[in-house]
Structures are given as structure tokens and as C-alpha cells.
Amino acid sequence: MKKPIKIAVIIAVCLAAALAGLFYYMSPENLDVVLPERGDVAPFLRGVGKVEGESTVTVYSDVAGFIAERHVERGDRVKKGDRLLSYEGEAQRDSVDHAATDLKYSERILTAASENRAKYLGIYNKALGEIENCKNVYALLEANILSLNIKDHEKAYIIREQQKACQSDVYKMEGEIAEKQAKLAKIDIDIKEMELLEEADEDELDDLIDDSEDLQREIGELNKKIADAQRAALCLPEESMDPETYRQYATYQNNLETVTRMWSDARSDRDTAQSMLTALSEIYADEETAEHNKLYLIKAEKELNAAENGCISPVDGIITECLADAGAYVEKGVPVIEMQNDNGYKIRMMVSKYDISAIKEGQSADISIGNLKYTGSVIRIDQAAENDSAGKSKAAVEISVDTEDDLIVGLEADVTLKLDEARDVLKVPSETIYSDDDGSFIYVSESGTVNKKYITAGVKDNAYTEISGIDENTHIIMDPSASMYLGEKIEESIINISDDDNG
Fold it and tell me: 335 CB contacts (<8 Å, ≥6 apart)?
């Protein structure tokens, strides 16, 4: 009797357990849900960058020559005015010596040329004055001679024709003189140029000097012939004169002899002085040559000074690259040192194409370099993308660092950029948002049934994400297992976002 009772009890217990399990299995799951709220979202972007100086400075060689010594190494911190490189300076010293010699020589030439110019200019002006005076006296004597009474009109006519012929000869001889003056000036130029040569051909120089002397002699002879022609033009037949007229004529002729001789000498002096002045003016760019050599010496002295001072740091900074070593030859203007200005620091951070649109100049940042904390702000967004170490195209963002500390360039820095805040927007906890190939979505409870709903996600901060595509009464499932109940009925436990923040 006892055994059947025990079996019945066991069966009853098992049946109760089965019914309880079936009830539990058939009852809806209870999931946490939240309602979206309106509020502000303070987004941020985290990334890693490298410390750089305020600006990159390239130092160029001030002179051409061999580097005697390099005084810095990569990573050294230097001050403005510190010597980075020393030059041998031998080429610059040679240039100064040559320039000084050239200047001294050109100044000596200038002095000699100036003295010769002054000398021949004085001779030329004096000759011009004497020629003008002789012209006036000759004209007066000519008038006096021609005013003498000549009774034989036929002879007087012959004299007039003789005067015309003489004057024609004078014009021809003056033309010859002009041609010979041009030749003489050219020869004098050649002589002076040969005299300036260190190794002149003595025979050729002697030939030129002989040619010059011949031309001067020929010009002198032509001037004498001109004087003779002028006197001949005023010769009257003596037999047609009475004693008193002849006495006057003889006096005039004596004076004419003196005037024509003086006139001839003055013309010779003028012609010689003129040819020398022409030669001097064409051979020397006197002032220009001396001034050019003076400027060249000043330039050479500046280059020597630069070589002796060495390559100097233009700013306070950190050496990042040494492009030339001791013993190397460098041209003027080539880069020899790369450095970064440490008057200020910045972080250079690479940002993906998905995040760059949210970054703007002026946004603030929190910066961590090891255990050191700093603040900063975005100062530049590079408009030309570049590849990062993984070969992905990214944009560089530069963030200033607010500090007076001496930082080490090249160190990594953790950066948190504070992006533009979204105010009075619909927001949900960020963990309720998922994504797949079709976009961002959430799980919602609609009349107690779990459904999948695609939405548009906006900016996010450390807790919330801006959202659009739903209203404020949407029941959003927070439970990460919501995907297991897709299309099934559930029980809801509504959680208030604000309470969750406080808790």
C-alpha cells in the first residue's frame, strides 16, 4: 500500500515541475527598454599624433666651400645664434685677396686716367681758345689785305680764284686729318689695352707705337700745309702796289705768318688732345670699373665674414636632420640642417576620411604625453591627404600645445578632440546602436514585439549618440540579446536615461 502512494507522489511532483517549466518557457521575456530624450551631445574624437616644433626650419649654407666641423647632432636643442657648422674659408680669403688687388689696380688706373684726362682736357680747351683767337685775327688780317688797292683787276680776279682753290685744299686736308684722328684714337686704344695685359707682345706694341707716332707726324704736316694754304690764299702781286701799300702789305704778311703758325700749332695740340681723350674715354670704364671692383670686394668680405662666423641657427629649436658632414663641399644656398622651432609645439595627427568632416579649426583638445597633461586647439587642417604607415589615405590635423615646457619632438601624444556640440537633439545611449552593411539600426519594441529599425546616427560623446528617424515615444531595447527575440513578444522594463546617468 505504501509503495503505490510513493509512486503517485513522485509522478505528481514531476508533473508540477513540467507544468512550471512549460509556463516559464511560454511566458514573454522581460527586456530593458529606454525612451530617447532631448538634450545636448558633446562629441569627441580620440587619436594619436606626434609632437613637432611650431614650424620646420631649413638652414641653408651661406657660402660655398668645405665644411671644417659640424657642431650639432640630430636631437640637439640649440638657441638662436648658436653655431651649427664651421667652414674652412680658404676660397673666401682668396676671393678677398683677388678683389682687393683688382680694386687697387683699378683705382690706380682711374687715378692715372683722371690725371691724363685733366691734362689733355686742359690742352684741348687751351687749343680751342687759341684756334678761335687765331680765326678772329686771321679774319681781320684777311680783311685788311683784301682792302689794299690792287690796280690790276685781272690779277685780282686770279687771286680770288686762287683763294677758292686754297680753301678747297684746306677742306680736303681737314677731312684727311679727321680720318687720321680716328685711326690714331683706335691705335691709342690698342696700345693702352696691350699695356694693361700682363704678358703683352713687345714687337706688336712697338709697331703700334710707331704707327701712332707716324699718324701724329702726318697730322702735324697736314696742319702745316693748311697754314701754308691759308697764307698763300692771301698773297697779292707786289708789283701792282705803291710803296706805302707794299709797306702795309708786308706788315700784314708778317702778322699773318705768325698767326698761321700759331693756328697750326693750336690745331695740332687740339687734334692730339682729342685723340687721347677719345682713347681714354673708350678704354676705361674708369669710375664704373673701380666701383664694380669696390662692390665685389665688399661682397667678398661679407662672404669671408659669413665663412668665418659659420652656419648660425636662425631660431631656438631642435635639430631634426643633419644634411652635411665635416669635410663635405657645399654650394651656397643648399640645405645643410633641418630643425624645428621650439618657441611653440604642435601635435600632428592623422585623421580618417570619416572623421575629418567633423573637425574644424579652433576646436579644443586634451593632450597626454606620457604622464603629462596639456590642453590645445586645432590650428590647421591639411587640405592635401597623405598615406599613413599602413598606406591608407588620411588628412593631417595640427593641434597647438599650450605649454612652456621643453618637449621632445617625435614623441607620441594621445589626443582627445572636443568636436562641435550638438544642442537640443534627440539622443540615446550609444550602446543601443548597431550597424551592418545597410547602415545604423536599433532594436525597438512595437506593441510588445521586437523589431529592427534603421536610423541615422549623428555625433556622439562618451555616453550618447545623436539620432534621427524615430520619435520621442520609441521604445528602444537596451538588452544586447535583443537580436535573439526578433519578431517575438517581450515584457518591457522601462529605464529612464536621466536616472541611469545619476545611478
Answer: 58, 59, 60, 61, 323
Cell of 473: 515615444
Instruction: Check if the beta carbon of residue 454 is closer than 8 Å to that of residue 444.
Output: no
**pLDDT, averaged in runs of 10, over the chain (503 residues):** 61 58 56 91 89 91 92 92 92 89 82 80 89 88 72 55 70 79 76 67 81 83 78 66 75 83 84 76 69 90 91 92 92 93 90 87 93 94 87 91 90 92 90 90 92 90 89 90 90 75 46
Nearest one of 231, 121, 223 to 178, comparing CA atoms: 223
Instruction: Return d(Cα 374, Cα 416) in angstroms, integer.
Output: 11
In the structure grid, which three cell numbers stand for residue 420, read together? Answer: 562641435
- β-pair type (83-87, 439-446): unpaired
Helix (H) or strand (E) holding 374: strand 372-381
Q: Which residues pair with 41 in a beta bridge?
A: 422
**Which is nearest to 461 in space by CA: 429, 426, 439?**
429
Antiparallel, parallel or unpaired: β 393-401 and 335-351 = antiparallel
Q: Say if CB 131 and CB 274 are below 8 A apart.
A: no
Name the burial class of residue 146, with classes exposed (0-12), middle (13-18) and buried (19+) by CB atoms within 10 angstroms of its CB: middle
Cα angle, residue 295 at apex, residues 291 and 297 outer, rounded to 5°: 115
Report the alpha-carbon distance of residue 259 to residue 113 in Å, rounded.
Answer: 33
One-character DSSP codes across 230-281: HHHHT---GGGS-HHHHHHHHHHHHHHHHHHHHHHHHHHHHHHHHHHHHHHH
- Closest to 77 in 3D by CA, of 409, 411, 410: 409
CB-neighbour burial class of residue 122 (10 A; exposed 0-12, middle 13-18, buried 19+): exposed
Distance CA 82, CA 62 (A): 15
